[in-house]
Amino acid sequence: MKQGPGLEDLLAREWLVANGIGGYAGSTAAGLNTRKYHGLLVAAMAPPVRRMVLLSRMEETLLRDDRRFALDCNEYPGVIYPQGHQFLREFDHTPFPRWRYEGDGWALEKTLHLLPGEYTVVLSYTLCHGSKADLEIRPLLAMRKIHELSYQWNGPLTSESRSRHHYRIPPTSRTPEMFMAHEGHFSEQPNWYLNQIYRQEQQRGYSGLEDLWTPGFVRFHLKAGRTVHFVCSAEPIDLKRALRLADEQRLSTAAPDSTDPVLSMLRRAAEQFIVSNGAAVPAEQAVNCIAGYPWFPPGGRDALIGFTGLLLVPGRHEEARSFLLSRLPMLRNGLLPSRMLEDCGPPVYQDADTSLWFINAVWDFLRYTGDDATGQRLLDAALQIVNCYRQGTDLGIGINADGLLASRSPGMPTSWMGAKIGEWVITPRVGRPVELNALWYNGLRIAAELCERYDRHSRAQGLKELAASVKRAFNSRFWNAQGGCCYDVIDDHGFDPSVRPNQLLAISLPFAVLESDRHEQVLRKVSSELLTPLGLRTLSPEDHGYQGSSGTSLVSRERAYHNGSAFPWLLGPYVSAMLKVHGRCEAMRAKAMERIRPCIDYMQQRGTGQLCEFFDGDSPHKPGGAVAFAPAVAELLRCYSEDVLGQKPTLSAAETTATQDVAQVMPEGVPHPA
Questions:
Q1: What is the structure's pLDDT at 507?
Q2: What stretch of H or E contains 633?
Q3: How many Å apart are CA 557 and CA 419, to the nearest integer?
Q4: Residue 469 burial (CB count, 10 A)
Q5: Going by CATH, does the domain composed of 7-252 fall within 2.70.98?
Q6: What integer is the mean pLDDT of 521-526?
C-alpha cells in the first residue's frame, strides 16, 4: 500500500492478527490507535476471554546524522503528534503486518508476529537502506481490560531486570505481570503519557481519553541488513525460542494455501475467529468461535451461523466435531447459549433461534464429513431441542395448534435483531418471527431425515407430520399477497408487514418452508428494496422507521442497527436463495460472483483482509460495527465455495466430496476477482 492517500485513509484501514486463544493485535495502518481496543498485544488471560490490552503501542525514533525521525503516530487533544505516517511508504497486512518507512538516505522495515497459542508479540526492525543508524523504541502500556481505560495513578509501577536483556514488570492491584526482552540497551525512564485520544470511541459516543505508562526505552545500533527484535509477553520470555517461532511463522505463511487468491484470503480471514481455551492437553481443549473483533466474546448464534464457512469449508472437520460436541453439556431446557461473557461469568441464554441454528449446523457437518457416529450423538441433542420447543420452554418459546413457533419474553429481544438501550428494546419482534419459523421447519425436517438415516422410523414419521403442519400454516399465515413477500412477524392479534431480509431463510435453508412458486416474488422484493452492493438492509427504505445512516450517537447507531444497516452476512442466504430460484448453471454462478464481488474488493482494499459487521444502508455505505465479523466472513466463504465454485457436498455424497480442494477450479465462465 503506497502512502499517497494520506493520514485519514491510513486510519480507515484497520489490521488484525489473532493468536488462536482469544488474544489479538490490531491497529490502523498508520499505527495510530483510534479505538481503546487497539493494541500490539491484547491477551486473553483466561482463554478465550478476560482479554486485556497490555502493550498499547510503541514510540519509535530513528537517529541518523544527528537527526531524529519519529516513526510513530498518535493523537492528543488538538494535534497529531508525532507524525510518523509522513515517512510511511508501504504497509501490507499479508501474511503478517509489515511497514516500510523511508527518509533521506535510509529505509526501515518493521514486522509484527503474534505467536499462535501464546501471549507473546515479536516486533522486528531491519535497516534496509543506509549504512548505520540508531533506533529508540519505547513501549507504552495500558495493562487494563479491553472495555476499560487506564488513567495515571500513584501505584507502584516499576520494571526489574531478570537478565541483561529480559525485564519484568511486577503485577499490582490493578495491573497484570508483564515481560519484555530485546537485543539492545534498556534505559529505565518510567513515565506517563497523558491524554491519548481514541477518536473512534468518541465518535461512537464513548469515553476516548487514556493515559499510558512506559518503563523506559530500548536503544539499538543498526547496520544495513541487520534485524533487531523486541518481544513483549504476559509470560516469562525465552528470547531465542520466541525469535525461532516468529521465523517459523514467517516461513509457514510465505506461500498461499491455495492457487485461488480469493479463497486464500477468505480462509485466512476465517481462521482468525477460531479459538481454543489454550489447554496444554489436547483432550481438554475446547474449540470456540469469536463472534467479532475487537470487542465481541465467543458467540453462540453467530458461531453457528458461521459454522460452515469457519470450520467445514476450510476442512477443519475435527474442530467442527469438537465444537458441536462441546455444545451438548450446555443444552438447558432445549436452549443453547447466546454468548460467553468476557468476565468468565455463566453463559447467557437469551436467543430463541440459537438451538435451531445448531440443528442446521449438524446437517452441514454431516454433509461435509459423513461422520455418522457423531451424527447419532448430535441427533439426540436435536431431538431434545425439538421436544422442549414443542412442549414450551424458557423465553416464552412454544408452538400453537398448527405448529408455528413463537417466542415471548417481556423486555428481552430473542431474535438476532436484538438491539437494546436500557429497557428499550428497539426491534422487539415479539410473537412468531418469520426466520424463527423457517428455522423451526428446517430443524424438524433435518431431525426427521436423520431419524430415517439412523433407523428411528417411527420418530421420523411424527416429525414429518408436524413439519407438514408447520409448512401449511406458514404459507397460509405468513404470506403477504399484496406485498408479494412474507410478513416479518405474525401474532394472534395481527401481523408486521415490514419488509426485512429475515424471510430469505424461508428459501435459503436446506429445507425451505415457503412454497417454491413464491420464491421468485420474495427474491424480487428483497432485491428491489433491501439489496446493496455490500449487504442487505435490515429494513426497507420505504418504511417510515428506516434509518439509512448509523450517525454519531449511541442512540442513532442502535436505532439504525436493525432498521436500515446493511449486513454482509445476509448475502450468503441471498445468493443461495438466488441459485435455488434460478438454478446453479454457470451463468447464475457468475451472477453470484457479481453479488459478492464488492465485499471481496472491500476485503482486499480498505478491509485489510477482513469484513466488517455492517455498512450504512444509504450510499456511500460507510462501514460500521466490529472491524471483523465472523458471520460475514464465514457466509462469504461458504457462498464463494458452494455457490460460486460449485463445491457443495450433499449428505449422500459427503464422504467423497467433502475432501475435495475447492481451491483448485474456478468454474468456466466465472470472471476471477483477484
A1: 98
A2: helix 630-638
A3: 10
A4: 17
A5: yes
A6: 98
Whole-angstrom Cα distance, residue 659 to residue 368? 8
pLDDT at 665: 35
613 neighbors 626 (Cβ within 8 angstroms): yes
- Assigned C-alpha cell, 327: 455444545
What are the domain boundaries of the chain? 7-252, 261-657
Cα-Cα-Cα-Cα torsion 245, 251, 254, 257, nearest 10 degrees, comes to -80
Backbone φ and ψ for 110, nearest 5 degrees, come out as: -120, 140
Q: What cell numbers appear for 452 in the block?
A: 430415517
Closest CA to 614 of 577, 574, 571: 571
Whole-number pLDDT of residue 3: 43
Alpha-carbon gap, residue 184 to 136, rounded angstroms = 9
**CA 516 – CA 315 distance, rounded (Å):** 32
Q: Stretch 64-83: mean pLDDT, rounded?
A: 96
The three-point CA angle 247-253-255 to 5° equals 125
**For the segment 662-674, what is each residue's pLDDT rounded down to a tens digit?**
333 334 444 444 3
**Cα dihedral sign for 297, 299, 305, 307?**
positive
C-alpha distances (whole Å) from 425 to each of 430, 582, 639 are: 10, 38, 32
Rounded to whole angstroms, the Cα distance separating 220 from 456 reads 71
- The DSSP element (H or E) to which 637 belongs, if any, is helix 630-638
**Residue 177, SS3 per DSSP:** coil
pLDDT the model gives residue 259: 87
Summarize the confidence of residues 163-168 as an average pLDDT.
93
Supply 398's cell numbers: 412454544
pLDDT tens, position by position, 482-514: 999 999 999 988 999 999 999 999 999 999 999
Among residues 116, 146, 152, 118, which one has the least CA distance to residue 42? Answer: 146
What's the whole-number mean pLDDT along residues 413-442?
Answer: 95
Please, what is the average pLDDT of the chain? Answer: 93
CATH class of 261-657: mainly alpha
Q: 245-252 contacts: CB < 8 A, separation 24 or more?
A: 245/113, 245/115, 245/118, 245/122, 246/113, 246/115, 246/122, 246/124, 249/96, 249/113, 249/115, 249/116, 250/96, 250/111, 250/113
pLDDT value of residue 673: 42
Q: Counting runs of H as helices and runs of E as strands, what totals does the chain give?
A: 18, 36
Q: Would you call 432 helix, strand, or coil by DSSP?
A: strand
pLDDT digits (tens, 9 = 90+) for 2-48: 444 599 999 999 999 999 999 999 999 999 999 999 999 999 999 99
d(CA 540, CA 526): 9
Please report which confidence band the pLDDT of residue 286 belongs to, taking 50, 70 and 90 as the band edges. confident
What percent helix, strand, coil does the chain show, rounded to 5? Answer: 35, 30, 35
Report the greatest alpha carbon distance in the chain. 86
User: How far is Cα 326 from Cα 274, in angstroms, rounded to an integer?
Assistant: 14
- DSSP H helices, 342-480, are 354-369, 372-391, 434-453, 457-477
Strand locations in 104-157, DSSP E? 106-114, 120-129, 132-145
Is the per-residue pLDDT at 390 higher than 90? yes
